[in-house]
Design goal:
CATH architecture of the largest domain: 3-Layer(aba) Sandwich
Helix content: 25-40%
Number of domains: 2
Distance between the termini: 10 Å
Number of strands: 12
Number of helices: 13
Largest sheet: 7 strands, parallel
Radius of gyration: 19 Å
CATH superfamily of the largest domain: CofD-like domains
Strand order of the largest sheet: 3-2-1-7-8-9-10
């Protein structure tokens, strides 16, 4: 019988949702491959991408620090953001990755070097090594270029996202990502921004096909709250349907959603920011092949009124599925 420490996990996505989940997964298995979107064009990552013509380092750096076993001070250093001057807002970890890429001449080697410095558990892989941007087609017909602009324009134009495309459309998957998916026991998509962190990965040539044809169990982890400009008014099934439409099939075996109630004070804060609790619409799962799993997965930061997944509980639910 396979032990939990033997489970081979592939996690697909980007942003803080993915890196938070990884902190839980690494407590139970070291066999982790993380496939990360590289379409980010905003913030410090976008500046480095534009100036140095390398892949955006931000999401990759987040995942590396989440999987790090290094001393707390070292992890804090790689998360550190400069507070003033021309580097204000920029992350030291982003600069380190950029410097290593310049020294080695290769982004893959730069990731390996940073992984070694941080004693990282598992592997963090860019979904593609090609330069790629996101194109958002809004329901009012507008076409928006750039990952950082799509949700903003959906809000300002009072519309929603119809679909996401890659520019160029024929970027190739990094071959190590395909091998990781083929070898996996479980493939996890999410949590994270649906249209700008998760879906861009499955649009890369070969990724959706590999997931659909892998013998691994496929799991989608739905967000706790909606995101303005991306998933306004979305239920759990709306999230899943959007993902499957972009993949071209529904090959997702399980959809995990939070069932814990949100406090009134926290909900008021999110409503003031045009976000809301993602409704669990179990009735809409009766006629689709995906099994809905609901659990109390809520971690509440009472001081900051921030709602996110309890990463230890989430990891337990995911890995239990892998063992069944």
């Amino acid at each position: 019988m396979k032990r939990i420490s033997d489970i081979k996990v592939v996690a697909v996505g980007g942003g803080t949702g993915l890196s938070t989940m990884l902190r839980g997964i690494k407590l139970y298995t070291k066999n982790i491959d993380v496939i990360v979107t590289v379409a980010d064009d905003g913030g410090g990552s976008g500046m480095i991408r534009e100036d140095l013509h390398i892949l955006p380092p931000g999401d990759i750096r987040n995942c590396l620090t989440a999987l790090a076993e290094a001393e707390p001070l070292m992890k804090e250093l790689f998360r550190y953001r400069f507070k003033s001057g021309r580097l204000s807002g920029q992350s030291f970890g982003n600069l380190f990755l950029a410097a290593m890429c310049d020294l080695s001449g290769d982004f893959e080697t730069a990731i390996e070097k940073m992984s070694s410095v941080l004693a990282v558990t598992g592997n963090v892989l860019p979904v593609t090594k090609d330069n790629v941007n996101l194109k958002g087609i809004l329901k009012n017909g507008s076409v928006i270029m750039g990952e950082s602009h799509i949700p903003e324009e959906a809000v300002s134009q009072n519309t929603s996202i119809e679909r996401i495309e890659l520019e160029p459309a024929d970027v190739r998957a990094f071959d190590r990502c395909i091998k990781a998916i083929n070898d996996a026991d479980i493939v996890i998509l999410g949590p994270g921004s649906l249209y700008t962190s998760i879906i861009p990965n499955v649009l890369v040539d070969g990724i959706a096909f590999a997931i659909a044809n892998s013998a691994a169990k496929k799991v989608y982890v739905c967000n706790v709250m909606t995101q303005p400009g991306e998933t306004d008014g979305y239920s759990v099934s709306d999230h899943l349907n959007a993902l499957c439409e972009h993949m071209g099939c529904n090959c997702i075996d399980y959809c995990i959603a939070n069932s814990a109630p949100v406090s009134e004070d926290a909900l008021k804060k999110y409503l003031s920011q045009n976000a809301n609790y993602v409704r669990v619409d179990r009735e809409n799962f009766e006629d689709i092949p995906t099994e809905l799993i609901t659990e109390d997965l809520l971690y509440k930061d009472e001081e900051k009124m921030i709602l996110r997944h309890d990463y230890i509980r989430l990891a337990q639910v995911i890995l239990k599925l892998a063992l069944e």
